[in-house]
Amino acid sequence: MFLIFLAALLKKANTEEEIKLLERIVLKDQRALEKLYDLYSKIIFSMVLRIVKNREDAEEILQNIFMQVWDKAGNFNSNKGSVYAWLITLARNKAIDKIRSSDFRNKFNLSAFDNELKIPEDIYSGIEIDAAIAQERSEYVKKALEQIPGKQREAIEMIFFEGYTQNEISEKLKLPLGTVKTRCRQGMMKLQNLLNDYL
Amino acid sequence: MNKEKFIKLCPLYFLDALEEKELDEFKKALESGDKELLKIYSDFRQTTFHLPLAAEQVEPPLRVKQNIFNAIKAAQQTEKYNAIDKLITLLGLKNPTFAFALSIIMLVGLTVLTFFVIQKDSTINSQQNIIVQLKDKVQKDAELLKILSAKKIDVVIMNGLEVNPAGYGKMVIDPVKKQAILQVSNLPETTSDKDYQLWVIKDNKPISNGVFTISKNKENNFFMITNIAVQDINNIKAFAITLEPKGGVPQPTGKMYLAGNASL
What we know:
The complex is a heterodimer of chains A (199) and B (264).
Chain A: H1 2-26, H2 30-52, H3 55-72, H4 83-101, H5 131-146, H6 150-160, H7 166-173, H8 177-198
Helix pairs in contact in A: 1-2, 2-3, 2-4, 3-4, 5-8, 6-8, 7-8
Chain B: H1 3-14, H2 20-31, H3 35-48, H4 62-90, H5 96-148, E1 154-160, E2 168-174, E3 179-185, E4 194-202, E5 205-212, E6 220-225, E7 236-245, E8 256-261
Antiparallel strand pairs in B: 1-2, 1-8, 2-3, 3-6, 4-5, 4-7, 7-8
């Protein structure tokens, strides 16, 4: 019980520290940007590289993301999620834009990562991930994903890491759309259960 | 929307896999504020944000960080130049006629400013001179008072002689410290080539005890004699003042203006 309380306290402190870093970046403090870069560049670069599959493009996107953070840190709203969520959303959108711009695939909506919904802000309190937690959980997430049946994992990865829409998956894998949806849904539900067991 | 349907739609929402109609339905359900649905939403959101961690962790090369900070530096430099450029444009300095007129105005302004600064400087100098003079006077007065406050003092009166009968003088002597105050009145002003010279008469021989000048419009003049020029002042017979060439002479050559016998 004490350990859970301690972990919650540490998590809160890390999240608050990251918010303070962004506040300093708004005031054009380069050291704060450097600290934020050191915390998140590896996680972001890894995800972007997985999506764009090209080191040069991934480096360019990583640079653009932190330039955007430098210019628009004031846009971050801590009531709508953690710094981690904000950066991951920025990074994934840029990476998907990149592969889409050099791809024939149709555009699709990324609203789920854009915080466009009118959701009560208090639902985010105490549930968010920060840099320290993310690094610590990376192995658990990989293990959890490996335990999901291959077809479900494939569907999730094609959408999340390759920017495919369900229709495109349906065409590519020659499967009914309903089957693709079911695979995605069941895969996500299993992942959630597995993560709950691990974390 | 019931809970079961919401649970079916929620994972697809986070994978951007909802049809338009489903998405509208989902948003409405979420915006209703149902706490149970919000909790389901929040849990799936958390799961989705764990997905990026499944990517193989790779360190980005150092050059990316360097590029970021170089780009920031370059942008800041550009902003600085733009600000200067805006200022130049705002002041109209890009228009040669206006720039010329502005430089003339600034030159005139600078000249006027310099003039005032010089004038102010001169006032300050003259006030500083007055302060020095006043300090000097205060110091002299303090020295005179010191002699007057001595336990024993001797006074020798000097009267005006034939050349200037209206003149008179006084020696107030501290015999212990061999110091004195010389006060002279009604002596004619000295010219630039002349000085009055004070003589101590001992054994019928005059010994020079210094020179002084008399300035215009000053009825009484006081001089401090820091050392009377004889070893034994008890043998002094008299004091006398003559008008001599500038700087004084070894033996008196000019007319005697004041003289007084001493009985010390």
